[in-house]
Amino acid sequence: MLYRKYSDYLAVLNNESLKVKAQAQAWRKNFLRLKNLILIGGPDDGVITPWQSSQFGFYDEKEKVVPMREQKVYIKDIFGLRTLDKRGAIHTYTVSGVEHTTWHKNLTVFDNCIEKWLT
Questions:
Q1: Which residues pair with 27 in a beta bridge?
Q2: What is the pTM of this model?
Q3: Pick from 40, 42, 34, 48: nearest CA to 115
Q4: 115, 119, 66: which is closest to 93 by C-alpha?
């Protein structure tokens, strides 16, 4: 993967680095403590590329977007993403018309995607 050439962080996060295997297990344990994982993104973000990466999608070698459930980190359950999904803890929202710098102040996003999870 191209990101391994330029980013030590992503390789570590994806459990593809020998440097921190023990740390990766702790991260997985902590990730699985989440009650709900709310993933919000949209095609008009303008900053996150591809925008689907806000929902754990990413490019393949041909720059085609591969959805979360087809990603290696999901299939192999490297850090617990599939485990969270199987227990119904992942909630994905796709919202058009919202630019990157306005997510935090968009009332429609808050009302429809965030508020009900604040308990």
A1: none
A2: 0.82
A3: 40
A4: 115
Alpha-helix residue ranges (DSSP H) falling in 1-119: 2-6, 8-13, 21-31, 72-75, 81-86, 107-109
Q: Using DSSP, state whether 23 is helix, strand or coil.
A: helix
How sure is the predictor about 99, in pLDDT bands with cuts at 50, 70 and 90? Answer: very high
Q: For residues 115 and 77, what is the distance between their CA atoms, to the nearest angstrom?
A: 29
Burial 72-106 (b: 16+ CB within 10 A, else e): ebbeeebbbbbebbeeeebebeebeebeeeebeeb
- Residue pLDDT, tens place only, 9-40: 667 666 666 666 667 788 889 999 999 999 99
Residue type, 98: V
